Amino acid sequence: MHTLRKRRLIWIMVMLVLVGLAAALALYALRQNIDLFFVPKQIVAGEAPKNHPIRVGGWVEKGSVHHSNNSLQVSFVITDHASNLSVIYNGILPDLFREGQAVVVEGQLNPQNVLVATQVLAKHDENYTPPQIK
Amino acid sequence: MKFFKHLLSPKYSYELIGKLMPWLGWIAAFTMLYGLVDGLFIVPPDYQQGDGFRIIYIHVPCAFLSLMIYAVMAIAALLGLVWRIKLADFAVIAGAPVGAMATLIALVTGSLWGKPMWGTWWVWDARLTSELILLFIYIAIMGLSTGLANQSQQSRLRNIFVLVGSLNLPIIHYSVYWWNTLHQGSTLSVTGPSHIALVMLRPLLAMIIGLGCLFALIGLMRLRNLILWESRKSQWVRLWVATNKNNNKKEVL
Lengths: 134, 253
Prior knowledge:
The complex is a heterodimer of chains A (134) and B (253). Chain A is built from 3 helices and 6 strands. Chain A is of the alpha+beta class and 134 residues long. Chain A has 2 domains: 3-32; 36-123, CATH 2.40.50.140. In chain A, strand 2 and strand 3 form a beta hairpin. Chain A is elongated. Chain B has 253 residues and is mainly α. Chain B has helices at 2-7, 10-42, 56-83, 86-117, 126-143, 151-165, 168-178, 198-230, 235-244, 248-251. In chain B, helix 3 packs across helix 6 (151-165) and helix 4 (86-117) packs antiparallel against helix 8. Chain B starts with a helix and ends with a helix.
Protein backbone atom coordinates (compact mmCIF):
# COMPACT_ATOMS: atom_id res chain seq x y z
CA MET A 1 0.00 0.00 0.00
CA HIS A 2 1.15 3.53 -0.77
CA THR A 3 2.52 5.46 2.20
CA LEU A 4 0.03 8.23 1.51
CA ARG A 5 -2.94 5.84 1.45
CA LYS A 6 -1.70 4.09 4.55
CA ARG A 7 -1.47 7.41 6.32
CA ARG A 8 -5.00 8.35 5.28
CA LEU A 9 -6.34 4.98 6.44
CA ILE A 10 -4.63 5.28 9.84
CA TRP A 11 -5.86 8.86 10.21
CA ILE A 12 -9.46 7.76 9.48
CA MET A 13 -9.27 4.80 11.86
CA VAL A 14 -7.92 6.99 14.68
CA MET A 15 -10.66 9.54 14.05
CA LEU A 16 -13.38 6.85 14.10
CA VAL A 17 -12.05 5.27 17.30
CA LEU A 18 -11.94 8.65 19.06
CA VAL A 19 -15.41 9.72 17.91
CA GLY A 20 -16.73 6.25 18.79
CA LEU A 21 -15.19 6.49 22.24
CA ALA A 22 -16.73 9.92 22.80
CA ALA A 23 -20.14 8.62 21.68
CA ALA A 24 -19.85 5.54 23.90
CA LEU A 25 -18.98 7.65 26.95
CA ALA A 26 -21.86 10.04 26.27
CA LEU A 27 -24.33 7.18 25.86
CA TYR A 28 -22.99 5.47 28.98
CA ALA A 29 -23.39 8.67 31.00
CA LEU A 30 -26.93 9.13 29.69
CA ARG A 31 -27.97 5.48 30.08
CA GLN A 32 -30.63 6.20 32.71
CA ASN A 33 -32.21 8.81 30.45
CA ILE A 34 -32.11 6.53 27.43
CA ASP A 35 -33.86 3.69 29.26
CA LEU A 36 -37.54 3.98 28.43
CA PHE A 37 -38.86 2.84 31.80
CA PHE A 38 -38.09 1.97 35.42
CA VAL A 39 -38.61 -1.58 36.67
CA PRO A 40 -40.62 -2.24 39.89
CA LYS A 41 -37.37 -3.02 41.76
CA GLN A 42 -36.15 0.53 41.18
CA ILE A 43 -39.48 1.97 42.34
CA VAL A 44 -39.34 0.00 45.58
CA ALA A 45 -35.75 1.14 46.08
CA GLY A 46 -36.98 4.74 45.75
CA GLU A 47 -34.99 5.52 42.61
CA ALA A 48 -37.96 6.97 40.74
CA PRO A 49 -39.07 10.58 41.34
CA LYS A 50 -42.41 11.17 43.05
CA ASN A 51 -44.94 13.73 41.77
CA HIS A 52 -43.42 13.44 38.33
CA PRO A 53 -44.61 11.41 35.29
CA ILE A 54 -42.60 8.19 34.95
CA ARG A 55 -42.81 4.97 32.97
CA VAL A 56 -42.62 1.57 34.61
CA GLY A 57 -42.22 -1.70 32.72
CA GLY A 58 -42.91 -5.25 33.84
CA TRP A 59 -45.20 -8.23 33.50
CA VAL A 60 -48.85 -8.17 34.52
CA GLU A 61 -49.04 -10.45 37.58
CA LYS A 62 -51.33 -13.45 37.02
CA GLY A 63 -54.67 -13.10 38.84
CA SER A 64 -54.11 -9.44 39.73
CA VAL A 65 -56.34 -7.77 37.12
CA HIS A 66 -59.61 -6.36 38.51
CA HIS A 67 -62.08 -4.52 36.29
CA SER A 68 -64.61 -2.12 37.77
CA ASN A 69 -68.26 -3.02 37.19
CA ASN A 70 -69.51 0.43 36.19
CA SER A 71 -66.47 2.22 34.70
CA LEU A 72 -63.31 1.69 32.69
CA GLN A 73 -61.29 1.66 35.92
CA VAL A 74 -58.90 -1.28 36.12
CA SER A 75 -56.31 -2.23 38.69
CA PHE A 76 -53.45 -4.68 38.33
CA VAL A 77 -49.99 -5.47 39.66
CA ILE A 78 -46.85 -5.39 37.53
CA THR A 79 -43.82 -7.39 38.52
CA ASP A 80 -40.21 -7.90 37.47
CA HIS A 81 -40.13 -11.18 39.45
CA ALA A 82 -38.17 -9.32 42.16
CA SER A 83 -40.61 -6.60 43.25
CA ASN A 84 -44.26 -5.69 42.60
CA LEU A 85 -46.03 -2.42 41.91
CA SER A 86 -49.78 -1.75 42.02
CA VAL A 87 -51.30 0.21 39.15
CA ILE A 88 -54.70 1.82 38.73
CA TYR A 89 -55.80 3.00 35.31
CA ASN A 90 -58.90 4.61 33.90
CA GLY A 91 -58.95 4.15 30.12
CA ILE A 92 -58.80 1.79 27.20
CA LEU A 93 -56.27 -1.03 27.38
CA PRO A 94 -54.40 -2.23 24.27
CA ASP A 95 -55.67 -5.47 22.69
CA LEU A 96 -52.56 -7.37 23.71
CA PHE A 97 -53.05 -6.52 27.41
CA ARG A 98 -53.61 -9.68 29.43
CA GLU A 99 -52.25 -11.43 32.50
CA GLY A 100 -48.63 -12.48 32.04
CA GLN A 101 -48.13 -9.91 29.24
CA ALA A 102 -45.28 -7.40 29.39
CA VAL A 103 -46.52 -3.80 29.63
CA VAL A 104 -45.09 -0.30 29.93
CA VAL A 105 -47.22 1.98 32.12
CA GLU A 106 -46.95 5.76 32.18
CA GLY A 107 -48.22 7.70 35.18
CA GLN A 108 -47.40 9.18 38.58
CA LEU A 109 -46.78 7.54 41.93
CA ASN A 110 -49.28 8.56 44.59
CA PRO A 111 -48.34 8.76 48.32
CA GLN A 112 -49.35 5.12 48.81
CA ASN A 113 -46.76 4.12 46.16
CA VAL A 114 -49.50 3.13 43.70
CA LEU A 115 -48.92 4.14 40.09
CA VAL A 116 -51.85 6.20 38.79
CA ALA A 117 -51.54 5.47 35.09
CA THR A 118 -52.34 7.79 32.21
CA GLN A 119 -51.31 5.33 29.48
CA VAL A 120 -50.78 1.58 29.28
CA LEU A 121 -48.69 0.18 26.42
CA ALA A 122 -48.33 -3.51 25.58
CA LYS A 123 -44.82 -4.80 24.94
CA HIS A 124 -44.74 -7.98 22.91
CA ASP A 125 -41.86 -10.40 22.37
CA GLU A 126 -39.91 -11.24 19.22
CA ASN A 127 -41.60 -14.64 18.67
CA TYR A 128 -43.97 -15.22 15.78
CA THR A 129 -45.77 -18.52 15.35
CA PRO A 130 -49.14 -19.86 14.16
CA PRO A 131 -51.62 -20.49 17.03
CA GLN A 132 -51.77 -24.29 16.68
CA ILE A 133 -48.04 -24.70 17.37
CA LYS A 134 -48.14 -22.58 20.52
CA MET B 1 -5.55 -5.83 -9.57
CA LYS B 2 -5.92 -5.37 -13.31
CA PHE B 3 -9.53 -6.54 -13.09
CA PHE B 4 -10.28 -3.86 -10.50
CA LYS B 5 -8.67 -1.14 -12.62
CA HIS B 6 -10.86 -2.34 -15.47
CA LEU B 7 -13.94 -2.33 -13.23
CA LEU B 8 -13.26 1.26 -12.25
CA SER B 9 -13.25 2.56 -15.81
CA PRO B 10 -16.48 4.52 -16.29
CA LYS B 11 -17.26 2.84 -19.60
CA TYR B 12 -16.90 -0.68 -18.24
CA SER B 13 -18.81 -0.04 -15.00
CA TYR B 14 -21.58 1.68 -16.96
CA GLU B 15 -21.96 -1.36 -19.20
CA LEU B 16 -21.68 -3.85 -16.34
CA ILE B 17 -24.46 -2.13 -14.39
CA GLY B 18 -26.56 -2.13 -17.55
CA LYS B 19 -26.17 -5.90 -17.78
CA LEU B 20 -26.99 -6.41 -14.09
CA MET B 21 -30.15 -4.31 -14.11
CA PRO B 22 -32.60 -6.74 -15.79
CA TRP B 23 -31.41 -9.57 -13.52
CA LEU B 24 -32.01 -7.54 -10.39
CA GLY B 25 -35.38 -6.44 -11.71
CA TRP B 26 -36.60 -9.95 -12.45
CA ILE B 27 -35.31 -11.43 -9.19
CA ALA B 28 -36.99 -8.58 -7.29
CA ALA B 29 -40.27 -9.09 -9.16
CA PHE B 30 -40.44 -12.85 -8.60
CA THR B 31 -39.31 -12.96 -4.96
CA MET B 32 -41.56 -10.03 -3.99
CA LEU B 33 -44.55 -11.55 -5.81
CA TYR B 34 -44.04 -14.81 -3.92
CA GLY B 35 -43.30 -13.06 -0.62
CA LEU B 36 -46.34 -10.78 -0.74
CA VAL B 37 -48.82 -13.46 -1.86
CA ASP B 38 -47.56 -16.04 0.65
CA GLY B 39 -47.02 -13.55 3.46
CA LEU B 40 -50.26 -11.58 3.12
CA PHE B 41 -52.71 -14.34 2.11
CA ILE B 42 -51.43 -17.87 2.74
CA VAL B 43 -49.32 -17.89 5.93
CA PRO B 44 -51.45 -18.52 9.08
CA PRO B 45 -52.04 -15.58 11.46
CA ASP B 46 -49.81 -15.08 14.50
CA TYR B 47 -50.91 -16.62 17.83
CA GLN B 48 -50.73 -13.25 19.54
CA GLN B 49 -51.13 -10.50 16.96
CA GLY B 50 -53.47 -12.25 14.50
CA ASP B 51 -53.38 -10.87 10.96
CA GLY B 52 -51.77 -7.63 12.17
CA PHE B 53 -48.36 -9.25 12.24
CA ARG B 54 -48.30 -9.39 8.41
CA ILE B 55 -46.92 -5.86 8.26
CA ILE B 56 -43.64 -7.58 9.23
CA TYR B 57 -43.23 -8.48 5.55
CA ILE B 58 -42.62 -4.81 4.71
CA HIS B 59 -41.32 -3.46 8.01
CA VAL B 60 -38.49 -5.89 8.79
CA PRO B 61 -36.99 -6.00 5.25
CA CYS B 62 -36.97 -2.18 5.04
CA ALA B 63 -35.51 -1.78 8.53
CA PHE B 64 -32.82 -4.38 7.78
CA LEU B 65 -32.01 -2.82 4.42
CA SER B 66 -31.86 0.69 5.87
CA LEU B 67 -28.84 -0.54 7.85
CA MET B 68 -27.38 -2.65 5.00
CA ILE B 69 -27.50 0.23 2.52
CA TYR B 70 -25.70 2.45 5.02
CA ALA B 71 -23.05 -0.23 5.61
CA VAL B 72 -22.41 -0.41 1.85
CA MET B 73 -22.22 3.39 1.68
CA ALA B 74 -19.76 3.45 4.59
CA ILE B 75 -17.46 0.99 2.78
CA ALA B 76 -17.73 3.13 -0.36
CA ALA B 77 -16.93 6.24 1.69
CA LEU B 78 -13.79 4.58 3.04
CA LEU B 79 -12.69 3.60 -0.47
CA GLY B 80 -13.39 7.13 -1.63
CA LEU B 81 -11.39 8.68 1.20
CA VAL B 82 -8.34 6.42 1.15
CA TRP B 83 -8.05 5.48 -2.51
CA ARG B 84 -9.77 8.57 -3.97
CA ILE B 85 -12.00 6.43 -6.17
CA LYS B 86 -14.57 8.59 -7.91
CA LEU B 87 -16.91 5.63 -8.45
CA ALA B 88 -17.03 5.15 -4.66
CA ASP B 89 -17.96 8.82 -4.15
CA PHE B 90 -20.75 8.33 -6.66
CA ALA B 91 -21.93 5.17 -4.88
CA VAL B 92 -22.40 7.20 -1.68
CA ILE B 93 -24.38 9.88 -3.54
CA ALA B 94 -26.48 7.25 -5.33
CA GLY B 95 -27.24 5.26 -2.20
CA ALA B 96 -28.36 8.04 0.16
CA PRO B 97 -31.93 8.63 -1.13
CA VAL B 98 -32.49 4.87 -1.47
CA GLY B 99 -31.43 4.34 2.14
CA ALA B 100 -33.58 7.28 3.24
CA MET B 101 -36.54 5.68 1.49
CA ALA B 102 -35.97 2.33 3.25
CA THR B 103 -35.65 4.11 6.61
CA LEU B 104 -38.79 6.16 6.04
CA ILE B 105 -40.81 3.06 5.08
CA ALA B 106 -39.50 1.23 8.17
CA LEU B 107 -40.49 4.16 10.41
CA VAL B 108 -43.96 4.61 8.88
CA THR B 109 -44.83 0.89 8.84
CA GLY B 110 -43.47 0.56 12.37
CA SER B 111 -45.70 3.41 13.50
CA LEU B 112 -48.74 1.84 11.82
CA TRP B 113 -47.87 -1.44 13.51
CA GLY B 114 -47.26 0.16 16.90
CA LYS B 115 -50.70 1.76 17.22
CA PRO B 116 -52.79 -1.47 17.27
CA MET B 117 -50.23 -3.69 19.07
CA TRP B 118 -48.41 -1.43 21.56
CA GLY B 119 -51.15 1.17 21.80
CA THR B 120 -49.11 4.14 20.53
CA TRP B 121 -47.90 5.52 17.19
CA TRP B 122 -44.57 6.61 18.57
CA VAL B 123 -42.49 6.38 21.71
CA TRP B 124 -39.04 7.86 22.30
CA ASP B 125 -37.30 4.60 23.06
CA ALA B 126 -33.73 3.90 21.97
CA ARG B 127 -34.61 1.80 18.91
CA LEU B 128 -37.16 4.19 17.43
CA THR B 129 -35.09 7.28 18.17
CA SER B 130 -31.84 5.88 16.74
CA GLU B 131 -33.67 4.80 13.57
CA LEU B 132 -35.11 8.32 13.25
CA ILE B 133 -31.58 9.70 13.62
CA LEU B 134 -30.54 7.39 10.76
CA LEU B 135 -33.17 9.08 8.57
CA PHE B 136 -31.78 12.50 9.46
CA ILE B 137 -28.25 11.29 8.67
CA TYR B 138 -29.40 10.07 5.25
CA ILE B 139 -31.07 13.43 4.57
CA ALA B 140 -27.89 15.26 5.63
CA ILE B 141 -25.86 13.13 3.19
CA MET B 142 -28.33 14.03 0.45
CA GLY B 143 -27.80 17.66 1.37
CA LEU B 144 -24.04 17.16 1.10
CA SER B 145 -24.51 15.70 -2.40
CA THR B 146 -25.74 18.80 -4.17
CA GLY B 147 -23.03 20.20 -6.41
CA LEU B 148 -20.78 22.78 -4.83
CA ALA B 149 -17.90 24.47 -6.63
CA ASN B 150 -15.17 22.28 -5.16
CA GLN B 151 -16.30 18.73 -5.84
CA SER B 152 -13.37 16.77 -4.43
CA GLN B 153 -13.45 18.72 -1.17
CA GLN B 154 -17.18 18.18 -0.87
CA SER B 155 -16.74 14.44 -1.50
CA ARG B 156 -14.16 14.27 1.28
CA LEU B 157 -16.43 16.08 3.69
CA ARG B 158 -19.36 13.83 2.73
CA ASN B 159 -17.33 10.63 3.09
CA ILE B 160 -16.07 11.63 6.54
CA PHE B 161 -19.65 12.43 7.55
CA VAL B 162 -20.82 9.02 6.28
CA LEU B 163 -18.11 7.23 8.30
CA VAL B 164 -18.89 9.14 11.50
CA GLY B 165 -22.59 8.43 10.94
CA SER B 166 -21.85 4.71 10.66
CA LEU B 167 -21.31 4.70 14.44
CA ASN B 168 -25.11 4.84 14.65
CA LEU B 169 -25.45 1.37 13.04
CA PRO B 170 -24.35 -0.70 16.08
CA ILE B 171 -26.39 1.63 18.31
CA ILE B 172 -29.55 0.89 16.28
CA HIS B 173 -28.89 -2.84 16.22
CA TYR B 174 -28.00 -3.26 19.90
CA SER B 175 -30.34 -0.55 21.25
CA VAL B 176 -32.93 -3.16 22.26
CA TYR B 177 -30.30 -5.02 24.32
CA TRP B 178 -28.28 -2.13 25.79
CA TRP B 179 -31.29 -0.19 27.09
CA ASN B 180 -34.82 -1.13 28.03
CA THR B 181 -37.14 -0.25 25.17
CA LEU B 182 -40.72 -0.79 24.04
CA HIS B 183 -39.43 -2.35 20.84
CA GLN B 184 -38.78 -6.08 21.21
CA GLY B 185 -35.50 -7.85 20.42
CA SER B 186 -34.46 -9.16 17.00
CA THR B 187 -36.61 -11.88 15.47
CA LEU B 188 -34.08 -12.87 12.83
CA SER B 189 -30.64 -14.09 13.75
CA VAL B 190 -27.71 -15.11 11.58
CA THR B 191 -25.89 -17.02 14.30
CA GLY B 192 -28.70 -18.66 16.28
CA PRO B 193 -32.22 -19.93 15.56
CA SER B 194 -34.74 -17.32 14.42
CA HIS B 195 -37.76 -16.61 16.62
CA ILE B 196 -40.29 -17.13 13.87
CA ALA B 197 -42.02 -20.26 12.56
CA LEU B 198 -40.59 -21.63 9.31
CA VAL B 199 -43.79 -21.06 7.30
CA MET B 200 -43.69 -17.38 8.30
CA LEU B 201 -39.93 -17.10 7.79
CA ARG B 202 -39.91 -18.19 4.12
CA PRO B 203 -41.88 -15.22 2.70
CA LEU B 204 -39.95 -12.88 5.03
CA LEU B 205 -36.60 -13.99 3.58
CA ALA B 206 -38.09 -13.70 0.08
CA MET B 207 -39.15 -10.11 0.83
CA ILE B 208 -35.69 -9.26 2.17
CA ILE B 209 -34.08 -10.59 -1.03
CA GLY B 210 -36.73 -9.00 -3.23
CA LEU B 211 -36.64 -5.54 -1.68
CA GLY B 212 -32.85 -5.79 -1.47
CA CYS B 213 -32.68 -6.37 -5.24
CA LEU B 214 -35.19 -3.57 -5.86
CA PHE B 215 -33.24 -1.05 -3.77
CA ALA B 216 -29.97 -2.22 -5.37
CA LEU B 217 -31.56 -1.72 -8.78
CA ILE B 218 -32.71 1.83 -7.96
CA GLY B 219 -29.30 2.69 -6.47
CA LEU B 220 -27.41 1.27 -9.44
CA MET B 221 -29.62 3.14 -11.91
CA ARG B 222 -28.75 6.35 -10.07
CA LEU B 223 -25.07 5.38 -10.04
CA ARG B 224 -25.19 4.70 -13.78
CA ASN B 225 -26.66 8.16 -14.44
CA LEU B 226 -23.91 9.76 -12.35
CA ILE B 227 -21.24 7.87 -14.33
CA LEU B 228 -22.81 8.92 -17.61
CA TRP B 229 -23.05 12.57 -16.56
CA GLU B 230 -19.45 12.60 -15.33
CA SER B 231 -18.19 11.11 -18.63
CA ARG B 232 -20.46 13.18 -20.86
CA LYS B 233 -17.53 14.79 -22.66
CA SER B 234 -15.48 11.64 -23.12
CA GLN B 235 -14.94 9.66 -26.27
CA TRP B 236 -16.88 6.54 -25.29
CA VAL B 237 -20.07 8.44 -24.49
CA ARG B 238 -19.94 10.21 -27.85
CA LEU B 239 -19.43 6.90 -29.63
CA TRP B 240 -22.16 5.29 -27.57
CA VAL B 241 -24.59 8.09 -28.39
CA ALA B 242 -23.68 7.95 -32.06
CA THR B 243 -24.16 4.20 -32.37
CA ASN B 244 -27.39 4.24 -30.37
CA LYS B 245 -28.90 7.26 -32.09
CA ASN B 246 -30.99 5.21 -34.49
CA ASN B 247 -32.49 2.82 -32.01
CA ASN B 248 -32.59 5.31 -29.13
CA LYS B 249 -36.33 5.01 -28.88
CA LYS B 250 -36.02 1.37 -27.92
CA GLU B 251 -33.05 1.94 -25.66
CA VAL B 252 -34.54 4.55 -23.41
CA LEU B 253 -34.78 2.06 -20.59
